[in-house]
Amino acid sequence: MQLLGIGSRIQHIELGKGVVTNVTSKHYWVTFIENGLETIDIDSDFEVIEAVEDEVDSVSFSDVETSLISILRKWSDASSVTPIADKWKKGTLILEPGDGKSSNKEIPIDTFFHKIVMVRDRIRVMEQKINASKNLDDQEKIDLQQYITRIYGSLTSFNVLFKSKEDHFVGERSK
């Protein structure tokens, strides 16, 4: 059996894709994209995506953490951790139709909040791609940036859900 080094990438049957961040005599510590940090037995059933054959203690946890964050940002649709305001945790969003004939629709606020954060992150990616584009001239970039600013302004109603003001949507500011 090959012992994997820190930085190896694996695909676990239940936990998904992950990166080995520490190795002990019996376990791998693996940070999974979907499930966070987990310890698994060295002889667990998983597929090796990319093996790093290194001495187990030759890479610091800090180096691996930096690499891991870079890998996760590059290969996943994962966003930064954006906490929901405490008062909304485990809450329910109730959509009540005005016709009185249809039934209400209930959605966990955490699910709704996650979707709002994903919209925000995708708008940010679009903004970065516009700004980095070689195919758009400066005026086209400015025009598209103004549309994005208006989109953020339309989403400010959802700021009440965010725990931190740094995560808020910000539209056009009055001068």
- Terminal Cα separation, in Å? 66 Å
Tally of strands: 7
Shape call: flat
Order of helices and strands: EEEEEHEEHH
Side-by-side strand order of the widest sheet: 4-3-2-1-5
Indicate the radius of gyration in whole angstroms: 22 Å
Oligomeric status of the shown chains? single chain
Tally of distinct domains: 2
**Overall pLDDT, averaged?**
82
Q: Please state the structural category.
A: alpha+beta
How is this structure best described in words?
The protein has 2 domains: 8-50, no CATH class; 78-167, no CATH class. 32% of the residues lie in helices and 21% in strands. It contains 3 helices and 7 strands, in the order E-E-E-E-E-H-E-E-H-H. The strands form 2 sheets. Strands 4-3-2-1-5 form a 5-stranded antiparallel sheet, with helices on one face. The model is unreliable at 56-60 (pLDDT under 50).
Write the layout of secondary structure elements.
Elements: E1 9-12, E2 16-23, E3 27-32, E4 36-41, E5 46-50, H1 61-75, E6 92-95, E7 105-108, H2 109-132, H3 138-154
Antiparallel strand pairs: 1-2, 1-5, 2-3, 3-4, 6-7
Helix pairs in contact: 2-3
